[in-house]
C-alpha cells in the first residue's frame, strides 16, 4: 500500500507557519520533489520577510553581528528571500541569540543575488555582544504598473519570486491606503476591480489584509478573472499640503 499524501497550503507557509501546521490530507497522486539551496533565513518575525538574520555555512546556522552588516548587505538578503527592499535594520529586534556568529564581515555591493556571493573579510568572531545580532525587516514586495506614474496602475505582488497582478474581492479605499503609504505615494484616491486580459491574477484574501497582514502573506494561488487598479495621490501632493498648513500657521 502506498504512503498517504498531504497537501501543503502555500499561503499558510508564506505567513511563517511550519509545514506541519499548513498540511491537510489529500487524495492527489502527485508528489513534490524539492531541492533546497537555502543559505539565509529570518527568524522570529511576523513573516518570511522579517526576523533575526542567520546564515548557513558548513551545515550549521550562525547569527550575524550588527557591526559586520550594513544597508547594502540587507538589500541583498531581502532580494535573495524574494522580499522588497529593507525597511528596518537594527539589532535585538527579534530576540537575543546564543548561537555562534558568522565569522567575517560581509562586503556586498548591493547588486548580488545571494548574500554568500558577496565578498567577506575580517577576523573571526566567536559571538555578538548582547543586543547586537542583526534584526532585519524587508518591505512587502508590492508595485503599481501601467499607470501614468509609479503611484497608479495595476496592483502587483512579487509572489514566489515572480510579479503577478492580484485580485482583492472586497477592498475599500481605507484598505488600499496601506499600499499607497507603503509605496510612499500618499493616500488612496480610487480603487476598482477590472476584468483581467491575457493572464489570470492571483487572489488576495480580504479578511487577511484587513487584519493588518502584508499583501504577499495574504496571497493564494487561487486564480481570478479580475485585477485591481489603484490610484494614489502621489508624494508631491502631500508636500504641497504640508507647506500650505505651515503657511496657515
Descriptive account of the structure:
The protein is α+β, with helices and mostly antiparallel strands and 249 residues long. It folds into three domains: 1-35, no CATH class; 40-138, SRCR-like domain (Mac-2 Binding Protein, Roll), CATH 3.10.250.10; 142-239, Roll (Mac-2 Binding Protein). The chain has helices at 10-14, 71-80, 173-182, 206-210, 235-248; strands at residues 5-8, 23-26, 40-44, 50-57, 60-63, 86-91, 105-107, 119-121, 134-138, 142-146, 152-159, 162-167, 188-195, 202-204, 219-223, 226-232. Strand 11 (152-159) and strand 12 form a beta hairpin. The chain is globular and about 55 Å long. It starts with a strand and ends with a helix.
The counted number of beta strands is 16
Q: How far apart lie the N and C ends?
A: 79 Å
Return the CATH architecture of the largest domain: Roll
The CATH class label of the largest domain is Alpha Beta
Q: Structural class per helix/strand content?
A: alpha+beta
Number of domains: 3
> What percentage of the residues does DSSP assign to strands (E)?
25-35%
Pfam families: SRCR
Disulfide bonds: 108-118, 208-218
Protein name: SRCR domain-containing protein
Keywords: Disulfide bond, Glycoprotein, Repeat, Secreted, Signal
